[in-house]
């Protein structure tokens, strides 16, 4: 009888402790469930946080959070914090990060359709750029990128590349003779500068400022806004506004991660991308105009070629089309689709 009385309280205590333990496990389980309900995605790219592309990406992340009521959170990493162009794109392809952005000249290793976008003066105005990207040429690229494991979310406006240097004023192609010019990995951009008489030198973006300081290169081709945001005005003296190449950026998501989302979340991401595109284009055009004026105010000599001089720039680069508009490089059929979409011909560009 005494034993039974002493055992009973022990049993009660054990049951009580068990209930507490089960309660804690339930609470922890609930907390983990709440945490797992939020989808966290990382997006990496190299441009300065103040650049129009970066601002557009931040707007995209904001819209996704808003439209999903916080169910999807996108953490953005600018300034190359988690890798250069190639590293973040490859990380997204492998799934190490969910998303990445890069300028399209760096994407030609994934599809040669981007090679056509690099052709000098294929896009002569921003209106032509948007018509092509939003139309059939853009859809073809989107489909092709899926074959490489990417879902294209949107194309931020990067802007026209201008020619800048720290050696001498440049008005016509002949003035480029012998200048060491930094380029991207784009074979077409490199060929442009060969035709202008310069010496193209591919350099990783993160190394360009130092290369200009040390004389490894003497100039580059880039948009006003990116140059200003990256403080390249400190190592430059001259700019020539020739619009020789338009570069778009591209925001992509790992296709498997995208496919794993619910249809509702997929729709939210694509809608946010479309809305961010409109806002980002406004920012890009405004910021490029502001950056150009800032260049002038800083003391950079900015030259705008006359109509006749612009013809010289275009005609000097036309042989690049002969070299690259061939099967296996800039596919002639795809180039023709772009031109038809824009309602013009090659002759219209170079006449």
Automatic annotation (TrEMBL):
Superkingdom, taxonomy of origin: Bacteria
CDD domains: PBP2_TRAP_Siap_TeaA_like (cd13603)
Key word Cell inner membrane present: no
Segments traversing the membrane: 7-27
Keywords, comma-separated and alphabetical: Membrane, Signal, Transmembrane, Transmembrane helix, Transport
Keyword Transmembrane: yes
Pfam family, one: DctP
Family: Belongs to the bacterial solute-binding protein 7 family.
Full protein name: TRAP transporter substrate-binding protein
Source species: Oceanobacillus longus
């Amino acid at each position: 009888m005494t034993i039974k009385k002493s055992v009973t309280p022990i049993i009660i205590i054990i049951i009580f402790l068990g209930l507490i333990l089960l309660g804690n496990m339930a609470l922890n389980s609930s907390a983990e469930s709440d945490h797992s309900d939020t989808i966290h995605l990382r997006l990496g790219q190299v441009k300065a946080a103040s650049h129009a592309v970066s601002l557009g990406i931040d707007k995209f992340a904001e819209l996704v959070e808003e439209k999903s009521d916080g169910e999807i959170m996108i953490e953005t990493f600018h300034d190359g914090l988690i890798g250069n162009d190639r590293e973040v794109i490859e990380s997204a392809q492998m799934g190490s990060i969910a998303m990445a952005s890069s300028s399209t000249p760096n994407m030609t290793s994934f599809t040669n359709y981007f090679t056509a976008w690099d052709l000098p003066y294929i896009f002569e105005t921003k209106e032509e750029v948007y018509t092509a990207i939003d139309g059939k040429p853009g859809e073809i690229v989107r489909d092709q990128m899926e074959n490489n494991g990417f879902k294209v979310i949107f194309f931020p406006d990067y802007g026209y590349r201008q020619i800048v240097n720290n050696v001498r004023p440049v008005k016509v192609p002949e003035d480029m003779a012998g200048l060491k010019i930094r380029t991207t990995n784009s074979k077409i951009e490199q060929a442009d500068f060969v035709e202008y008489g310069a010496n193209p030198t591919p350099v990783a973006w993160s190394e360009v400022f130092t290369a200009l300081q040390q004389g490894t290169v003497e100039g580059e081709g880039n948009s006003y806004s990116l140059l200003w945001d990256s403080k390249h005005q400190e190592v430059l003296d001259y700019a020539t506004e020739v619009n020789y190449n338009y570069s778009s950026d591209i925001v992509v998501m790992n296709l498997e991660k995208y496919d794993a989302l619910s249809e509702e979340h997929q729709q939210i991401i694509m809608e946010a991308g479309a809305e961010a595109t409109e806002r980002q284009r406004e920012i890009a055009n405004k910021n490029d105009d502001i950056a150009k004026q800032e260049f002038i105010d800083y003391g950079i000599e900015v030259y705008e070629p006359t109509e006749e001089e612009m013809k010289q720039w275009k005609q000097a680069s036309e042989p690049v089309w002969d070299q690259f508009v061939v099967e296996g490089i800039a596919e002639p059929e795809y180039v023709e689709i772009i031109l038809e979409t824009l309602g013009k011909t090659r002759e219209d560009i170079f006449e």
